[in-house]
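FAQ

Q: What does a record look like?
A: Structure on top, sequence underneath. For example:
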């Protein structure tokens, strides 16, 4: 598995919706990029100016909503992930 470094997290992106609430099937170019996913790995945390590690507030298994254009897309073993900074997460879904 991939292990993010520093204050980065690895998010498994939710699947894009194939159709709207009204039942209309969307073409691939009309689908909105999902902004939700599940955290599958977290880094150790950010480093403070004095050298101490600031622990992460997010943890593996958290479902999150993140900025629309956050992170870098990575494909690993057939799965699509985003690697992003912890600050790019807007909310945790409870």
């Amino acid at each position: 598995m991939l292990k993010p470094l520093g204050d980065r997290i690895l998010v498994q992106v939710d699947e894009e919706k194939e159709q709207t609430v009204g039942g209309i099937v969307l073409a691939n170019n009309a689908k909105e990029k999902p902004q939700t996913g599940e955290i599958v790995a977290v880094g150790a945390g950010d480093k403070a100016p004095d050298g101490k590690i600031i622990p992460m507030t997010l943890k593996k298994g958290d479902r999150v909503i993140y900025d629309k254009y956050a992170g870098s897309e990575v494909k690993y073993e057939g799965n699509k992930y985003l690697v992003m900074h912890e600050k790019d997460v807007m909310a945790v879904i409870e």
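Q: Is there anything notable about this one?
A: The CA atoms of residues 2 and 41 lie 8 Å apart.
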